[in-house]
Predict the 3D structure of the following.
Amino acid sequence: MESVTGFRRPAGGTNPLNAWDAYGSTVKRTPKRAPVRIDHTLTEVTGPAPGAAEFGPSVTDLTHHAGGEAVGERMTVSGFVVDEDGRPLPNTVIEIWQCNAAGRYAHPVDQHDAPLDPHFLGVGHAMTDADGAYRFLTVRPGAYPWRNHKNAWRPPHIHFGLFGPGFATRLITQMYFAGDPLLPFDPIYNSIPDAAARERLCARFEMDLTQPEFALGYRFDFVLRGRDATPMET
Amino acid sequence: MARGLTASQTIGPFFHHALIHDGLEVLVRPETRGERIVVTGRITDGDGAVVPDAMVEIWQANADGRYAHPEDRREDAPLDSAFTGWGRCRTDDDGRYRFETIMPGPVPGRGNTLQAPHIALTLFSRGLLNYLTTRIYFAGNPLNDTDPVLGAIEDEAARRTLFATCEEGGDMPVWRLDIRLQGDGETVFFDV
């Protein structure tokens, strides 16, 4: 018998509501029954740690593809991956994907009438370093329309996926830009009840991260679930 | 220093070119220990319509019940250097997910319990603001009767939504578990 220490439950209001009719796709896909809460076992405190073996070498520069340079406002997004206690999470993968500067994804399902950019694929992945730090170079994504409601527009956003230390720390999220005028109208962003949790999804512009004559700098930290205080016998 | 958690958002419909890579749905290599199996099933929504734009990930122990992770420190169950226990796939146009893997061994539960062989499954899609988590168990395994997580599900019919059934006859056993997101026969999901 050995002990496992589970991960803390998210504070109420931090994660989106599941049943959220303002986002139409939830209506037929959200389970009606409440999920069954289970205490963490070895299955949930362990978890996958894919990296170069699964995804290939890191791709942190999204601005060059197919022999040319992407169109758009160059920006870096960088920060740290930490847990709720502020402990850095080194050597964990971050996956990134986004539309181009005109608001179009290099994805066959995206039919928005905005130009594709042959030099922007909009996908990559990075491993955090020993301090939990990461950095991507990309272009600022455009806004784009979707059919959720009349005159619906997604605010510019970048998708990220992280694993963290355990099965229970998996995170897929979207990063937005502080002060964006579309945020108050976006049902996906506003599915999060807690205003502070919403604001934490907004990258912050920082002059100190901005490189002269090259790229604007945005700071965005990822905070994954921390540990319960008390180990449990397994 | 206490930090506020980063919230979940939907994976959306435009992830495939970034996240789906050939081979991630095959967890076995020639030298992997254990019984080769296929786990597959179809995902449907509250109208019974297939969900063709989901991403499914699985996490499981190896044939000896050991997780390839530093927090599984048991020395009585050996690691398998040819098995990470993680896989990922997209659902196809028919709403199907499919993995080639091995039958996991039983792993310890809390207290002095033993968990029946199971595969933890995470499901992402457009319309899911938070991902869903469930488990695949294997119908007919005698350890199912005493599995502590299955025991937490009071309704017998609900518990059965987690039992994959075996179809023999091909190259390897095919364990099938359909996932119903909503409505009649709704799959049990876990709050982990």
Observations:
- Chain A touches chain B through 86 residues (CB under 8 Å).
